[in-house]
Automatic annotation (TrEMBL):
<protein>
    <recommendedName>
        <fullName>Pectinesterase</fullName>
        <ecNumber>3.1.1.11</ecNumber>
    </recommendedName>
</protein>
<dbReference type="GO" id="GO:0009279">
    <property type="term" value="C:cell outer membrane"/>
</dbReference>
<dbReference type="InterPro" id="IPR018040">
    <property type="entry name" value="Pectinesterase_Tyr_AS"/>
</dbReference>
<feature type="domain" description="Pectinesterase catalytic">
    <location>
        <begin position="27"/>
        <end position="320"/>
    </location>
</feature>
<dbReference type="InterPro" id="IPR000070">
    <property type="entry name" value="Pectinesterase_cat"/>
</dbReference>
<keyword id="KW-0378">Hydrolase</keyword>
<dbReference type="GO" id="GO:0030599">
    <property type="term" value="F:pectinesterase activity"/>
</dbReference>
<dbReference type="GO" id="GO:0045490">
    <property type="term" value="P:pectin catabolic process"/>
</dbReference>
<keyword id="KW-0732">Signal</keyword>
<keyword id="KW-0063">Aspartyl esterase</keyword>
<dbReference type="GO" id="GO:0042545">
    <property type="term" value="P:cell wall modification"/>
</dbReference>
<dbReference type="InterPro" id="IPR011050">
    <property type="entry name" value="Pectin_lyase_fold/virulence"/>
</dbReference>
<dbReference type="Pfam" id="PF01095">
    <property type="entry name" value="Pectinesterase"/>
</dbReference>
<comment type="similarity">
    <text>Belongs to the pectinesterase family.</text>
</comment>
<feature type="signal peptide">
    <location>
        <begin position="1"/>
        <end position="23"/>
    </location>
</feature>
<comment type="pathway">
    <text>Glycan metabolism; pectin degradation; 2-dehydro-3-deoxy-D-gluconate from pectin: step 1/5.</text>
</comment>
<dbReference type="InterPro" id="IPR012334">
    <property type="entry name" value="Pectin_lyas_fold"/>
</dbReference>
Length: 449
């Protein structure tokens, strides 16, 4: 089964009513249709000035840019602005895994309104397939999507800092990990179901350095329910296991904290995991403050691991001060296009459309990037990938659900059916990628099935 990002059904759908004004001041425009200076994002990076001290703004028009991106160390103060997060997509994958789609080797880089994908996550649960890897200091992301399977986001090098505001991040294994400081405000952290139907996974894998007071910090984030196939713990301690040699590879003092989190039943009651029986839990800081269900009721934390913490308001207070976590760096002063936290909001989009075997029929499962209260979804189907006809529709309730599904008869072995979903939520209109379903090649509902 294969899928590729699709923009439009016959006539192109306008994904959002409001678009960035091209009259804004950009230093360079990238466009696949040739209307910009470059057709490649990497070409724009290569041509950007070196050792910049003020933002150099690169506007990227709608399109799927299939290229492995590397921002060299001397390309500082680059700002990447997508025309729209739902369909301005930076993607790479070789079908084997072990790749990094976007590598940031420069200080002071800002991504806005963009989707970063490692396409390996659409065909398999692993191996390691990073959508983004940061190796330097002061990376900022606003209204971005990060999509892959295993190891989606790797934040490298202790004491370097990365800030995320109103972003969507998904994966299935250790998909936010590393030894850097990562601060996440108002983000959706979506623990998606594993493609092979396995029932367990891990969200984070911090490997915080011993002399570093903060690791991964999540404030006011959402952890919505998936389709119910795979349940997750909030994290496990990378580089703190029986194979870690304290005299060669310094054992990590893993630090991950979730504050004011809304989480669903996809999170296991125990909350957290050790790596193995060699994990030193005495040096781990795994903590929560005010974890709530989506209906506002407190999460039952009575079965959380004994070596994890439930913080008091006094203990949690330092985590709400940016200067404690980020030090003397204020990303809001550096980047004029980074909105205030109080007004920042992510834009809606559809992700992870796939077909699962359901005993001769199939389930077409997908999720939105943000809660889809009152959204309407229409499923279109085609046998030739040219003419699409309405096949079904559904209406979301007034709730915080983001995982949805349609049912349809599976195509016969060797036959193909093509699907696309269009959706509206308030004034926003958005569509899915086109899904090519081949009979006999559906993902399982359970592992081994």
């Amino acid at each position: 089964m294969s899928s590729k990002f699709f923009i439009g059904i016959a006539a192109a759908l306008c994904l959002f009513a409001a678009k960035p004004a091209l009259a804004q001041s950009y230093d360079v425009v990238v466009a696949q249709d040739g209307s910009g200076k470059y057709t490649s994002v990497q070409a724009a990076i290569n041509a950007a000035p070196s050792n910049g001290t003020k933002p150099y703004r690169i506007f990227i028009k709608h399109g799927v840019y299939n290229e492995k991106l590397t921002i060299p160390q001397d390309k500082t103060f680059l700002e990447f602005v997508g025309e729209n997060v739902a369909n301005t997509i930076l993607t790479y994958g070789d079908g084997k895994g072990g790749t990094s789609a976007t590598i940031i080797n420069a200080d002071d880089v800002f991504f806005k309104d963009l989707t970063l994908v490692n396409s390996q996550g659409a065909i398999a649960d692993g191996p390691q397939s990073q959508a983004v890897r940061t190796t330097r200091d002061r990376a900022v992301f606003f209204n971005c999507r990060f999509i892959s399977g295993q190891d989606t986001m790797y934040l490298v090098r202790g004491k370097t800092r990365a800030y995320f505001l109103a972003c969507y991040i998904d994966g299935n294994t250790d998909y936010i990990y590393g030894d850097a400081i990562g601060l996440f405000d108002n983000c959706v952290i979506y623990a998606r179901d594993r493609l092979d139907g396995s029932t367990g996974g891990y969200i984070t894998a911090a490997s915080t350095k011993p002399d570093q007071p903060y690791g991964l910090v999540f404030r006011n984030c959402l952890l919505p329910d998936n389709h119910g196939i795979t349940n997750y713990t909030l994290g496990r301690p990378w580089q703190n296991d029986k194979n870690t040699r304290d005299n060669e590879l310094r054992r990590a003092h893993n630090k991950t904290v979730f504050l004011n989190t809304k989480m669903g039943s996809s999170i296991k009651p125990e909350g957290w995991s050790a790596w193995n029986d060699g994990t030193d839990t005495t040096i781990i800081t795994y903590a929560e403050y005010n974890s709530r269900k989506f209906n506002g009721a407190p999460v039952d934390v009575s079965r959380r691991r004994s070596w994890t913490q439930q913080l008091t308001a006094e203990q949690a207070a330092p985590y709400f001060k940016d200067e404690n976590i980020l030090g003397d760096w204020n990303p809001f002063k550096t980047w004029a296009d980074l909105p205030a936290k109080s007004t920042a909001a992510g834009q809606q989009a559809i992700s992870n459309l796939l077909a699962r075997d359901n005993g001769g029929n199939m389930l077409l499962q997908f999720n939105t990037s943000w809660p889809a209260s009152d959204a309407s979804f229409v499923l279109y189907k085609s046998d030739d990938k040219k003419t699409f006809k309405k096949a079904d529709q559904l209406k979301a309730g007034k709730n915080d659900v983001i995982a949805f599904q349609f049912k349809d008869k599976a195509p016969a072995d060797g036959q193909h059916s093509y699907y696309v979903i269009s959706a509206t939520q308030g004034k926003q209109t958005f569509s899915s990628d086109t899904l090519d379903v081949s009979g006999g090649k559906l993902f399982p509902m359970k592992k081994g099935r």
